[in-house]
Here is the input.
Amino acid sequence: MKTRAADDIAVVIPTVGREILRESLERIARGDLLPARLIIADQGGALPFDEWARELEPLGLLLQVIRNQATGRSAAVNAGVRHATTRFVAITDDDCMAAPDWLARMADRLRAAPDAIVSGRVDTVGDEPNVDTVTSRAERRVTRPSLTFDPMSGGNVGFSLDTYEKVGPFDEHPSVRAAEDGDWAYRALRRAVPIIYAPEVRVAHASWRDEEQRRERYRTYGLSQAGFYGKHIRRGDAFMALRAVTNTLRATRRWARGVVRGDSEARMNGAAYVLNFIPGVIAGLRHETGDA
Here is the structure.
C-alpha cells in the first residue's frame, strides 16, 4: 500500500525545460512512496508547471518550482537543495524514469546510513548505447577515492542535508560543468563521507540523443572530466594526477578498441576524452580555489 508522502525526504530535479520531465514526474507520482515535496529547479522557463501541478496533486505529488537564472546543472541542483526542508534529499534528472520502488528503497537506505551518500543503478531504455551509466548489480560501500571512478551517479543519488553541508555545494565552475557529480563524490570521500552503491535503487535513463548529439555530449564530458583533474592537481593533489593518467590510458584503449572492432560509440567516446584532455586540464588549472 502506497504511503502518501514521506515527511523526511524531498526530491530535487534540475531541468532545462525538456518535455520528457512530465513522464519523469508521473513515474514518481505513481511510485510506492511519495516525497514530502518535489522541487523542480528550472532553467528553461517554458514548461506548463501550473497545469502539471494541478494534474499531479490528486495523486499526492506536491510540486515546488524554483526559477533558477544561473546556468548549469550544478547551479540548479544547489538551488533545489537549498529549498529543501526535509532531513534527506534525493536527486534525479528530467530524463530519468524512476522505478516504482525507487524512492522507498532510497529512503530505506538513507535512514539506515544517514551519514552516507546513497547512489544506485542507472539503466538505459531505448536505442541510445549504454556507455557512461552505472549498471552494476553488486552492492558496494566505498570509503576512499578510486583510481578510476567513484560509484556515484548524479541522476540517482541521495544524502542528508547535514552531508551536503559537510561536503559543500556542487561546483558551478564552467571547467567542471559536466563532471560536477564526480567532483562532488571525490570531495565527499576526501571528507570521510562514505558512498553506498545500492543496485536495488533504480532509475532508467531515457534515450533521446542522436549520434551527433552524443558526440557533442562526449566532447563536453571529456573537457569537464579533464577540468576536474586540473582543478585538483592545481590544489596539489598528486593522487588526482595519477588518476588523470590512468583514465586517459583507459580512454585511449577504448578509442583503439572501437577503431579495431568497428564500434563507433566506443570510438567516439574514447576519442572525446583523449582529444579534449589537454584543453580541459588547462581550464581546470585556472579554476580558482574555494570551498568547492
User: Anything to note?
Assistant: The chain has a mean pLDDT of 93.
